[in-house]
Amino acid sequence: MTHLGSASAGYSWMKTLYAPLTEEPAKLLPLLIPAVCRDMRPENFVRYALAIGLGFGIGEMWFLAERVARMPEFSGMPFYQFGGFFGERLIVCVFHSAFVSVALWRLRRRLALGLAGAVALHWLGNFPLSLMAWNVGGWGKTFWTIVVQCWLMFYFAGALGLLGYFGLTPRRLWKVSSRGKLLYGRRHCPECAGDYEAPLFALNFGPTRYERCPHCRRWHWTRTRNA
Predict the structure, then answer these.
(1) d(CA 172, CA 215)
(2) Among the four 11, 54, 95, 171, which has the fewest Cβ within 10 Å?
(3) Rounded mean pLDDT of 119-133?
(4) What distance in Å separates the CA atoms of residue 122 and residue 20, rounded to the nearest whole number?
(5) Residue 200 pLDDT > 80
(6) Residue 180 has what pLDDT?
(7) For the purposes of burial, counting CB atoms within 10 Å of the CB of 144, is it exposed (0-12), middle (13-18) or buried (19 or more)?
(8) Same domain, yes or no, for 94 and 204?
(9) Domain termination residue (choose one: 124, 141, 167)
(10) Are 194 and 122 in a shared domain?
(11) Residues 195 and 101 in one domain
């Protein structure tokens, strides 16, 4: 039993599995709602992953904020000194969405495999925090804080890439782009009567934009042209 005591290395490693093994299955509870389970398809599961991840992340943020508010050492600090906390928590919302997207990706086939992938990614994202807590290598808190911050940025880019891959595959990207609706849709020039795909840079006012026509090179107000 000494290998599993509260001060043992085995117990420390087991604690790293707690959050992945409890949080990832909890995120799948919305599947118990029949309407949600029926509606979820390969075409829209990323939307559900984003909604679930955002909701879970906000709930986690609220829980941690409540615990921090109870600590006397933080009670006198102004709100703007918690900017790092809010920034880190918002990034974590994206992480949660990416994790649950892996599980939902396999919803209709091998859900257990998808859930295992979500658990593994969650554990991998948290692992540098464990290394910092253990002070591996004896390099100190400053060194491991820098490592963790760099890891979070790298992981954030990876999470965005994963969600983008699931949500807009090359086939869907080509399909959307070929219809001229990739960003702002097809536009109709009121002066030269030419149609074109809206440029990236313009003044946006909802469905109306002030932009330059690539044909007559004049600036004008346009609206989305449904085709």
Answers:
(1) 28
(2) 171
(3) 90
(4) 6
(5) no
(6) 40
(7) buried
(8) no
(9) 167
(10) no
(11) no
Q: What is the DSSP annotation of 141-196?
A: HHHHHHHHHHHHHHHHHHHHHHHHHHHS-HHHHHHHHHTT-SSS-EEE-TTT--EE
Closest alpha carbon to 187 in 143, 130, 226, 142: 226
CA distance 42 to 108: 9
Would you say residue 30 has pLDDT above 50?
A: yes
Q: Does the residue 173 lie in any domain? A: no
Q: What is the pLDDT of residues 45-104, one digit of tens each?
A: 998 999 999 999 999 999 988 888 888 888 778 877 887 888 888 899 999 999 999 999
Q: How far apart (Å, rounded) are the C-alpha atoms in residues 120 and 91?
A: 18
Phi, psi of 167 (to 5 degrees): -85, -25
How buried is 24 (Cβ within 10 angstroms: 0-12 exposed, 13-18 middle, 19+ buried)?
buried
Evaluated on CA atoms 72, 78, 82, 86, the torsion sign reads: positive
Is the same domain home to 186 and 110?
A: no
Last residue of a domain, one of 134, 167, 200: 167
pTM: 0.69
What is the band of 227 on the pLDDT scale with cuts at 50, 70, 90? very low
Does 161 share its domain with 193?
Answer: no
Residues 186 and 162 in one domain: no
* Residues forming a β-bridge with 221: 210
